[in-house]
């Protein structure tokens, strides 16, 4: 934001220059100003009240992109302090330390670390993890995600065996596999996806699997590779409501994601699953509409969690959703017919994933 002002005053649309006040001032936001909607003006008053024009004004003109309006200023502003129900313990314990060592030893990428997951301590402490394949650099630049954006490295064709071997060493009974988007590849990474599932099946025949996949741009050929290897659960996240999709998931499309989930269900996938985040400025009716859209697409499982800003460069948190509201969405989802609804501030798409195969 840039501020324009000088001792010589300011001229707006032919108005006479406004001189700075000679006496101490009180700052008010004068929403009745005729220029507010166009310029976003903060009026500095020497007298008057917040509801009546003063006799003398000194105006600072704030230029923003997009320009402020009265409607924008009335929208929820980013919040700073996390409420007590979002406090989590630092990851510790023997199992967590052991799993951390395996991830480092085999140069594996987990969404637990790259995505700044608040459940990392709990999940890793239980000896479970979500593995991220196809590297840790994504071709997309979603405003909510902590994974790096840029030009990905070359494919590591030994990665399927690495993941399968680690699952065997850790004795995992239910594994979640996810990946970055690889729009740079002709097959968008779907071949590595299929090979990873096959490798896990060969080395861990008793392990059940969830594959949390990207949209593969909705191309059925790529989706068919996932269907063919038969994971118990295939998941693809909507992330947010329809109105906010363009801002939150810049290169994604709301309807395309719904179509991906619908197609997977039509192809006979055992369980389909999706997840959304709250706290980005969505309204209750929009959340309910998204849940209804997911049921119409025959989705079986839905997860609902609180969005947490990975860094200051990412989209701000507009609201911390109350636990009571999460409970309300859980009850509504079950009434709609979802088999499982995981709804809570710290819920993420792979949280308690082992329950979702039934």
What would you say this structure looks like, in words?
The structure is a single chain. The chain is an alpha/beta fold and 358 residues long. It has helices spanning 36-39, 70-74, 94-105, 111-114, 120-125, 159-170, 190-203, 220-229, 245-248, 254-266, 284-296, 323-336, and strands spanning 2-4, 26-28, 41-45, 57-63, 109-110, 130-133, 137-138, 148-149, 174-179, 208-212, 233-235, 271-278, 301-306, 340-343. Strands 5-6-9-10-11-12-13-14 form an 8-stranded mixed β-sheet. A 4-stranded antiparallel β-sheet has the order 1-4-3-2. The chain has a two-stranded parallel sheet with strand order 7-8. Strand 10 (208-212), helix 8 (220-229) and strand 11 (233-235) form a beta-alpha-beta unit. It starts with a strand and ends in a 15-residue tail after the last strand.
| N- and C-termini, Cα separation | 52 Å
Largest sheet: 8 strands, mixed
Number of strands: 14
Tell me the helix content.
25-40%
H/I helix tally: 12
Residue share in β-strands: 15-25%
Defining traits:
disordered N terminus; 12 helices; alpha/beta; 358 residues; 31% helix
């Amino acid at each position: 934001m840039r501020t324009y002002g000088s001792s010589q005053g300011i001229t707006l649309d032919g108005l006479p220059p406004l001189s700075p006040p000679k006496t101490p001032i009180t700052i008010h936001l004068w929403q009745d100003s005729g220029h507010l909607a166009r310029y976003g003006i903060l009026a500095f008053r020497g007298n008057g009240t917040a509801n009546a024009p003063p006799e003398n004004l000194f105006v600072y003109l704030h230029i923003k992109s997009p320009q402020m309006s009265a409607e924008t200023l009335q929208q929820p502003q980013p919040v700073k302090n996390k409420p007590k129900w979002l406090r989590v313990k630092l990851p510790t314990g023997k199992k967590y330390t052991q799993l951390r060592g395996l991830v480092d030893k085999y140069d594996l990428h987990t969404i637990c670390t790259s995505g700044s997951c608040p459940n990392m301590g709990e999940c890793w402490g239980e000896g479970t993890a979500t593995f991220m394949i196809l590297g840790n650099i994504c071709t997309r630049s979603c405003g909510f995600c902590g994974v790096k954006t840029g030009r990905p490295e070359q494919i590591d064709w030994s990665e399927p065996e690495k993941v399968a071997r680690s699952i065997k060493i850790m004795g995992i009974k239910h594994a979640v596999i996810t990946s970055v988007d690889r729009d740079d590849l002709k097959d968008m990474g779907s071949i590595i996806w299929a090979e990873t599932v096959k490798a896990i099946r060969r080395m861990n025949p008793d392990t059940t699997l969830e594959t949390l996949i990207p949209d593969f741009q909705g191309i059925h050929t790529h989706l068919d590779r996932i269907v063919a290897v038969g994971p118990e659960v295939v998941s693809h996240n909507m992330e947010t409501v329809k109105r906010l999709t363009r801002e939150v998931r810049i290169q994604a499309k709301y309807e395309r994601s719904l179509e991906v989930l619908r197609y997977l269900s039509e192809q006979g996938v055992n369980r389909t699953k999706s997840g959304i985040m709250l706290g980005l400025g969505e309204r209750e009716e929009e959340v309910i509409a998204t849940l209804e859209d997911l049921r119409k697409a025959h989705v079986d499982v839905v997860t609902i969690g609180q969005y947490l800003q990975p860094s200051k460069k990412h989209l701000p948190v507009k609201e911390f959703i109350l636990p009571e509201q999460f409970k309300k969405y859980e009850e509504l989802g079950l009434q709609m017919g979802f088999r499982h609804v995981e709804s809570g501030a710290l819920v993420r798409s792979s949280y308690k994933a082992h329950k979702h195969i039934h």
